[in-house]
Design brief:
It comes from Fodinicola feengrottensis. This protein is α/β, with parallel strands linked by helices. Helix content is 31%, strand content 19%. The structure holds adenosine-5'-triphosphate and magnesium ion (MG).
Length: 349
């Protein structure tokens, strides 16, 4: 379940404005990836390239052996059915109630009877926690509900790939936490490959299996979460830790003067914060892309920041580490003493 998306050497410009060039990454099948980047770096443009709404100048996007950039409109229309997309603003039709909004792709793309449509729409509305709001218009519900309605609509065609553009913009922290949990649960239930564009550092630190960062017209880095979360690379560090100090300024790049001023002020980047455990599905299952906490660091000889991979304070008895350690193939390496950073598996007292 879920399909791999392989992007190679992708370049996109509008006129003479290069948005990004030579972007290469692979979204592993069934895993959740997050794409970060300062505002205006072309994250939304990247998603639109993935579904063929925009054409890149160069490069390829390979899904199930097809290069999307070379497909005819007719074949592209077929391949697009693999995707479920939640656009930045939810993109609901204002004059249609939620039921009709969510039913829209089914009525448009399939020949299902209205009773089948109803079964699917009810199911997806239940999944995103919107049961009972069928007759509401988008203008009558909160921003968080609109996002969830957009998500339900993105799911009705049983997508293999789910693209989500800033699901958390305009949401309060509690609703953001709920929608993040919803992504992890959905990913576990439907097994689709997820790519989530976000500005929310907490989301980036806990939701994905992989993280990418677009910066200065390039993909600065893409890889397993532990690689990015333990990275000393200044841009990655600054972004993932939401710091003002570092190479990224208000208008994307700081000038030499600003950086020099920071250097002269003796500013050093604060130590890396601990790597948190990933969010787990609520139904007690493991994630599709789940690996034991610390496995990437260990395999690559990287010492994670002190205090990494522990249950957050106050989550008594969540047995997070025990569940994380259920991932297949995980055995604690022989001869390795437990320490603060790799206390695994940990038994709750
Ligand atoms: N259809 C278009 N024609 C011309 N320029 C465009 C088009 N779409 C986007 N752009 C430009 O591409 C750049 C990247 O835009 P994009 O919306 O992808 O940024 P973003 O990273 O999603 O930003 P944000 O985080 O604010 O949503 C911007 O400079 C924008 O003006
Ligand atoms: Mg955007």
């Amino acid at each position: 379940m879920g399909v791999e998306v392989k992007v190679e050497g992708l370049t996109k410009s509008f006129g003479r404005q290069v948005i990004w060039s030579d972007v290469s990454l692979t979204l592993p099948a069934g895993e959740i990836s997050v794409l970060l980047g300062p505002s205006g770096t072309g994250k939304s443009v990247f998603l639109k390239n993935l579904i063929g709404l925009l054409k890149p100048d160069r490069g390829s996007i390979t899904i199930q052996g097809n290069d999307l950039t070379k497909l005819s409109e007719r074949k592209l229309y077929e391949v697009r059915k693999l995707f479920g997309v939640l656009f930045q603003d939810g993109a609901l039709f204002g004059s249609m109630n939620l039921y009709d909004n969510i039913a829209f792709p089914l009525r448009e793309h399939t020949r299902k009877s209205e009773s089948e449509v109803k079964r699917i729409v009810d199911d997806k509305m239940e999944m995103v926690g919107l049961a009972g709001t069928e007759r509401k218009l988008p203008g009558e519900i909160s921003g968080g509900m609109r996002k969830r309605a957009g998500l339900a609509r993105a799911l009705v065609l049983d997508p293999e790939i789910v693209l989500v553009d800033e699901p958390d913009s305009g949401l309060d922290p509690v609703r953001t936490a709920y929608i993040n949990q919803l992504f992890v649960d959905l990913n576990q239930q439907i097994g689709a490959t997820f790519l989530i564009v976000t500005h929310d550092v907490n989301t980036a630190r806990t939701v994905p299996d992989n993280i990418g960062l677009l910066y200065r017209r390039h993909l600065a880095m893409f890889g397993p979460r532990e690689m990015l979360l333990s990275s000393e690379e200044p841009v990655v560090r600054q972004f993932l830790n939401a710091q003002r100090q570092g190479p990224i300024g208000m208008s994307e790049e700081k000038d030499v003067g600003e950086l020099e001023a920071e250097r002269q002020a003796g500013y050093e980047m604060p130590p890396l914060p601990p790597i948190a455990l990933q969010l787990l599905p609520t139904d007690g299952q493991v994630r599709a892309g789940q690996r034991p906490p610390g496995a990437w660091c260990q395999a690559n000889g990287v010492t994670p920041p002190p205090g990494s991979f522990q249950d957050p304070p106050g989550v008594a008895g969540s047995a997070g580490n025990a569940r994380h350690a259920q991932s297949s193939g995980w055995t604690k390496p022989a001869g390795r003493a437990d320490d603060d950073t790799l206390a695994l598996p940990r038994v709750e007292g």
